[in-house]
Amino acid sequence: MSEKYQVAAATPLNNETVERIRQDFPILNQQVFDHQLVYLDSGATSQNPLQVLDAERDYYLGKNSAVHRGAHSLAVDATDAFEDARATVSGFVGAAENELVWTSNATEALNLIAYSFGNASAGIGGETARQFALEEGDEIVTTELEHHANIIPWQILAARTGATLKHIPLLENGTIDYDAAEKIVTDRTKILAFTHVSNVLGSVTNVDFMVKLAQKHGAFTVLDACQSVPHTPVNFETLGVDFAAFSAHKMLAPTGIGALYGRNELLEAMPPFLTGGSMITKVTMTEAQWMPAPIKFEAGTQRVSQAVAWAEAVRYLEHLGMENVHAWETTLGQRLAEGISQIEGVRLLGPAAGEERTGLASIHVDGVHPHDVGQLLDTQGIAVRVGHHCAQPLHRALGITASTRASTYMYNTTDDIDRFLDALSQVRNYFGL
Ligand SMILES: Cc1ncc(COP(=O)(O)O)c(C=O)c1O
Predict the structure, then answer these.
(1) pLDDT tens digit string along 345-391?
(2) pLDDT band at 330 (very low <50, low <70, confident <90, very high)
(3) At 336, which CATH number?
(4) Which residue range is the domain that position 221 belongs to?
């Protein structure tokens, strides 16, 4: 076993190995209302292991400086750490270093594409950027499954350019209606934006189908990979998508940083979104020229310590092995789905138990508001998310306004799931139903 980690590399995850791994996450070892905390809200944000916290602290203790500018040694060390982090995070998702742009989160990454395309539509970026320009008659297609971060930027882009925004509806179980997709995506489609894994249902999109459909019609693909990259092996090049977005805080790393993946030739041709210091080669009082990608998209002082910490989180996940992480979370997710299905008066949203689904599950409890469910679970030390999970259109399609979501990560045990199921089975009774 390596000294740095609690388990040897690529050790399969089970209750025993996870118990050891949990020593890296002291935050999990606390009492809430006199109960041992059960953290089932990693879909919203995950916890950071000590290795990641140490990496960020070490950066501040030994290297903190502005990157890409200073001529002094500390600045060189900081720049090296920053660019090494880019190599680590881009490698994790099958991308080249110049295909990964740091952003403040996945939301900013999705906005970056939309605003860059909007700028291209306004003539910024010249001839090479014309391929990204939208006009009246063009269409942007997304799905009813999306997080608001993959809906609103396209609404704004459509409003700015005169393009039309369309969406692919869902089947009854909440998965994408692929037959409908074939009719909605046409030669008018310029962008097809869709999620890899639903943050509400845990359903998994057939990316290959969507990419081939988009390519047949010459549309750009944008993948929201927020709920896939942290939990399963993902390679954007193999998936064949043009762009993808994901966030560090959902994969054992700090808040404040996310990333945009873009195929290099596209990033090179796209105009910038945010502008200012660091992203330029020449500025006069009337115009500016910018750096090659990805730096042209990174205006202003960068999130260096967060990038360094994110790279450490990637090393942590690679040490465990993403196949192992995926296998364990599938076990937890199925236990969750099966258990929920057996509780009277509780509806499991999305794919049924036994069908393909990830380690999260959302539910509707008949006659009890999700906020009441969440509060009752909290009094037993169980942390879940309640509300619309930034997916109001999806909830509307399901005929509800809100739901309760339990979402796992590699540090959860089957005991966590059982504590949740046990508490859930008592909710309706508690409210006199
Ligand atoms: C599917 C999905 N997309 C986008 C986001 C937005 O991520 P962030 O808030 O880190 O920008 C989230 C986070 O909840 C998500 O789950």
Answers:
(1) 999 999 999 999 999 999 999 999 999 999 999 999 999 999 999 99
(2) very high
(3) 3.90.1150.10
(4) 57-317
Regarding whether 128 and 194 lie in a shared domain, the answer is yes
Cβ–ligand 1 distance for 231 under 6 Å, the answer no
pLDDT at 3: 87
Is 105's C-beta closer than 6 angstroms to any atom of ligand 1? Answer: yes
Ligand 1 atom index nearest CA of 104: 11
Q: Are residues 224 and 134 in the same domain?
A: yes
350 contacts 175 by C-beta, under 8 angstroms: yes
Within this chain, do residues 375 and 307 fall inside the same structural domain, yes or no? no
83 and 188 belong to one structural domain: yes
Look up the pTM and report it.
0.98
Whether ligand 1 lies within 6 angstroms of the CB of 106 is answered as yes
Is 282 exposed, middle or buried (CB count within 10 Å of its CB: 0-12, 13-18, 19+)? Answer: exposed
Last residue of a domain, one of 290, 317, 344: 317
pLDDT band (50, 70, 90) for residue 172:
confident
Do 23 and 43 fall into the same domain? yes
| CA dihedral sign, ordered 350, 354, 359, 362 | positive
165 and 114 in a common domain:
yes
Among all residues, which ones are annotated catalytic? 390
Residues 411 and 308 in one domain: no
What DSSP string describes 186-229?
A: -TTEEEEEEESB-TTT--B--HHHHHHHHHHTT-EEEEE-TTTT
Atom of ligand 1 nearest to the CA of 109: 11
Contact 200, 394 (CB under 8 A): yes
86-98 tens-digit pLDDT: 999 999 999 999 9
